[in-house]
Amino acid sequence: MMITLLGIVIAILSLAISCNGENCLSGRYHKLSSGPEPGMEECRRFSHSACCFSNYTVELAVSPMSKVDNTYWDRCGQLSPRCEEYMKKIDCFFHCSPLVSNWINPNNSYSIHNVPICQSFCDDWFTACMNDRTCVRNWISDWEWDEHGNNCRNECIPYQQMYRNGKDLCESMWGMSFKVPSCPCHCLMLDDDDGNVVQHLQSHNSGTSNPVEPYCQQRKNQQREVK
């Protein structure tokens, strides 16, 4: 009983947004707490409550993308429009979404850890980028850096050779930032429904939610509609 109760408490704490309002990651591009940013040029779905400043999105709004800050996205050639779209979704989530505070890395407040991301999102991301090229498997640790930014250490190869499938892409490209859960309902699609998913996870882990099955079926239907 004590172990079960402890598990519930830990789950709630790991998902709860900080009570003191500091609900954003640490970092020079993150605000202390989320708030309105009406002038955003990209990541606009977070404009009502963003963890990034609007000026951060200026470079992201450019297409085709070349770089964000000192990180080049085109070291292996220009990204295809669909692949670029998914890369922007990841960047917007990391820098601008207040939901990331639910998965702050306990060992590094500048990063996220094991954000539950849906298999279907990962599969679609893999399909979008499979013919694009990259020279690194882990975009956090595998680049060679100098005063000109990130550089390749190895030859450029297609995503479909670098990663086995969508799950491998999601769980490898950004280190341990994302994790594909076994339950297809307790995961994020990086869309407008993510806030509802987090609320369900909080109530589910506290034992106050409605039965999981109706919610799960609703999520499955939504994901099929996206397809």
Helix content class: 25-40%
General form: globular
Q: What's the gyration radius in Å? A: 18 Å
- β-sheet strand percentage: 5-15%
* Major sheet size, sense and barrel closure: 2 strands, antiparallel
Poorly predicted spans: 1-21
DSSP summary, beta strand count: 12
Number of helices: 8
Straight-line N-to-C gap? 42 Å
Structural class: alpha+beta
Mean pLDDT: 85
Q: From N to C, what is the helix and strand string?
A: HEEHEEHEEEHEEEEHHEHH
**Widest sheet: strand order?**
1-2
In short:
This protein has helices spanning 2-15, 57-60, 81-96, 119-129, 159-162, 166-172, 194-206, 212-226; strands at 30-35, 50-52, 67-68, 71-72, 104-105, 108-112, 115-116, 133-134, 144-146, 149-151, 157-158, 178-179.
Can you characterise this structure?
The protein is an alpha+beta fold and 227 residues long. Helix content is 37%, strand content 15%. The protein is built from 8 helices and 12 strands. A two-stranded antiparallel sheet has the order 1-2. A hairpin with a 2-residue loop joins strand 3 (67-68) and strand 4.
